[in-house]
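Sequence decides. Consider this:

===
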Amino acid sequence: KLTSLALHPVITPELVQGRVHLKCSYSPPFPEPPVQYRVLWSRLSSSGKREKLHHESTPQPFSYVGMDGANLRLGDTVFCTVTAFRRGTPEQQSLPEDSKGFYAGIKFLPESLEIAEDGKEHVLTVLSTVPIACPGQDDSCKITLQLSTEDLGSRVPGPPDITLSACQVDLLPGPCSGSSCAAATVTVTAVTDFAQDGSRVSRISAEPVTPRDLLWRAYTPRDVKVMVRDLPTGNCYSFTDPHIITFDGWRYDNSKIGTFLLCHGESRAFEVHVRQWDCGGHRSATTCNCGVAAQ
């Protein structure tokens, strides 16, 4: 009986004669009878329905389809459906078996981020699920992605709430492993802006820079949304003759004359200097703030 053969079709990417192809592989029954396979390739449309791309009958335990940038493009989610039947008796066929959907294109891992304004760096991996083809014999065998950030959803449009460690990443050719055929990393950090602007959403976009390969020319990868959680801003004070309250609420007085370092940031170039001078105390020496400098 051919009703259930457990063919387990799986899609993997390959370079065939310098062009990107997808290969559908399936396990033939053992011991192998004289069986033919009917393979149907399809992709997910924008409405979520399957669109037929290509079909063939073959005695081989695999089937190829080429990514030409027209019928099959980057950004498509592709399926292969395999049915087995005996030669000469096509009406005796197995139940069709679907592969998992294969997304061909650029992926960001993680697909979304939630970070806080705490100065921490978060690693974002940019990977291609298809091999990087080399159209010529020169050294341009790479895909360069231009990265940009944008603020989303703020009432008043402003600068994005995130910064990236690089504006461009290069995807270089290499052997495919798992779901990655080429990968690069970039770090994402929330902007510490001292503004109590609530949690804001920014996005990271990627765009291929003048690719020579036709497959990449009309392709725009999916964006990554980054939620930035606002953290309360600390305050410190120096007032009257001077009473000082530190960021953590510690209180003391400093009645000396001179120029003092009031605040120094350890993680970035940020300092506040204060100048105190005699301001005419009757019973004892009294000093007051008379100047401030901030870097």
About this structure: The CA atoms of residues 119 and 163 lie 11 Å apart. The first strand starts at residue 10 and ends at 16. The helical segments are 214-217. The chain has a mean pLDDT of 87.
